[in-house]
Amino acid sequence: MTNFYSFKGTVTMISDFSVRQNSKGEGCYKLISVENELGSTVNFIVSPGTYFVDHAIVAIGDHITGYYDGDVPVPLIYPPQYRALVIVKDSLYQNVKVDYFNGQLVSNDGQLKLNISPYTQVLLTNGQPFSGNPANRDLIVIYGPITKGIPAQTTPYRIVVLC
Q1: Final residue of a structural domain among 59, 89, 119
Q2: Closest of 144, 74, 147, 135 to residue 99, by C-alpha
Q3: Range of the domain at 105
Q4: Looking at the structure, do residues 18 and 74 belong to the same domain, yes or no?
Q5: How far apart are CA 46 and CA 20, in angstroms?
Q6: Domain match, 24 and 49 both
Q7: Residue 41, SS3 per DSSP
Q8: Does the pLDDT at position 1 exceed 90?
Q9: Does residue 8 sit in the same domain as residue 85?
Q10: What residues does 44 pair with on adjacent strands?
């Protein structure tokens, strides 16, 4: 179970990020700087393993949410620098929740319960169908309308299982 934290804001810079002394990794890693409405900045290290919801291409000026593991040690520098696990480009047409969902498909923060329908796509990060039970796993949930109440309930459009 990953302890997901997020930071939401506007992309202010995208640059190459060097992780090795030799040129083998050159161009494979990016540093994306994001500034929120309060003026706080976070740098996300984006690796080839970072999952971009809908395979969205991110550019300067885009509004995104970056998710990272809150239990992983990070260097004490400013602005903070986190290894991005999931990047979501904001959309008016869908909501996204990245969290651990228990056996009743309730998110770890208790804010969202999933009601899976036969039309809900359940996929792996590589786009292939997931054949197991998505309960008790880290999930990326793409959904639309929710009910009022705690937890809010939704029937997701798509679930991506983070194996």
Answers
A1: 89
A2: 135
A3: 95-161
A4: yes
A5: 15
A6: yes
A7: strand
A8: no
A9: yes
A10: 32, 82
- pLDDT computed for residue 24 by the predictor: 67
pTM over 0.90: yes
Residue 128's Cβ-count burial label (10 Å; 0-12, 13-18, 19+) is exposed
Query: Do 84 and 99 have their domain in common?
Result: no
Same domain, 99 and 46: no
In sequence order, the 6+-apart residues with CB closer than 8 A to the CB of 134 are: 101, 105, 114, 116, 122, 159, 161
Give which of 147, 150, 143 is closest to 117, Cα–Cα: 143
**What would the two tokens of residue 96 be?**
């996204």
Altogether, the residues listed in the chain come to a count of: 163
The pLDDT-based confidence of 100 (bands split at 50, 70, 90) is: very high
**SS3 track for 111-133:** CEEECCCCCCEEEECCCCECCCC
The reported pLDDT for the residue numbered 129 is 96
The verdict on 53 and 121 lying in the same domain is no
Residue appearing with tokens 């990272």: 68
Mean pLDDT, rounded, of the chain: 94
Among the candidates 89, 106, 124, a domain finishes at 89
Q: Are residues 78 and 139 in the same domain?
A: no
Strand-pairing partners, residue 124, are 161
